[in-house]
Amino acid sequence: MIFINKIHPRLSGAITILFIILIVSSAYIIDSSTPQPDPISLTIPKGWPAPKSNIFSKNKLTEQGFQLGKKLFYDSRLSKDGEISCASCHQQFASFSHYDHNFSHGINNTLTQRNAPALINLIWMNELHWDGGINHLEVQPLSPITASNEMGNSLDTVLDRLKKDSVYVRMFREAFGDGNINSQRMLKAIAQFTGSLISSNSKYDQVKNGKAAFTPYEARGYEIFKKNCSSCHAEPLFTDNSFRNNGLTISKQKDIGRMYVTNKIQDSLKFKVPTLRNTQLSFPYMHDGRLYTLYDVVEHYRTGIDTSMPSLDKKLKKSIIISEMEKAELVYFLYTLTDSSFIKNPRFAPGMESRVKSKSH
What we know:
Distance between the termini: 39 Å
Structural class: mainly alpha
Number of helices: 14
């Protein structure tokens, strides 16, 4: 203090300024230790349209966010009883649908009311679920997490469990810069994982890219497909994402489809046109899983359409006229839409997220 009191006033001011600069610099060094997530980008497959959903413009896709989302997707603690995860009804080997189940099982062995759709190529969809009742990928998990016949939980309970887990605290910090765990961040992380589930490497794709060739049966099936099916199952996504009444009689669950969302009688019994990619793996078929084979599906369009329905899609007023051999050839072509590399990709499988190391820059 005696030394400082003897310093010239101008020098004292300079020291004060220098002291402030040192403090600010120290603060900057501390802030720079905040984890900086590694950005990643999705590659749009050759010949595909731009995604309809631009969710990653405000939810920057990062490796840490993706891995956090994957951990959440496979974590059964998101359900009330700790038994059901997102992956319970969306299995990778079944193209993230529920293999061999017409209706998925929720907590307390309850049943859902619809067949679990395949979770692939979601960023090309503006409306999700069979009735289009969800219009944003980040919001989608709220429905199964809170539904009483699915995961049956509350957001508060889920977040409380996550906050007590040191691994999650670390992963949220790595993905978002700090360990604050809230519902918005949780949903953003899950969307980073599900939005990355792009399937585009089937035999069909390889043929289109000049890397493979159809067999004669598959080639004839492709021509049959283009003539009879492609107006609704448009290439390359093999869906036009529309909602249509395809002539199925009303289900035992009295499910009226899109009408639940719009309250318009003309939308009665309309359901989303599903993608046919990996359709060989995602049986059973239709919104209620009533058809178990692709041959059953084709036969429905040959002989099973109920043409008396007022809301029946106009394109289905006439049944598809093909022979038994042509039916088989059409199914052979549909098999070429199976993407084996996608269903075996270890990046989408559980157990890898823990390998992402904590980073500081």
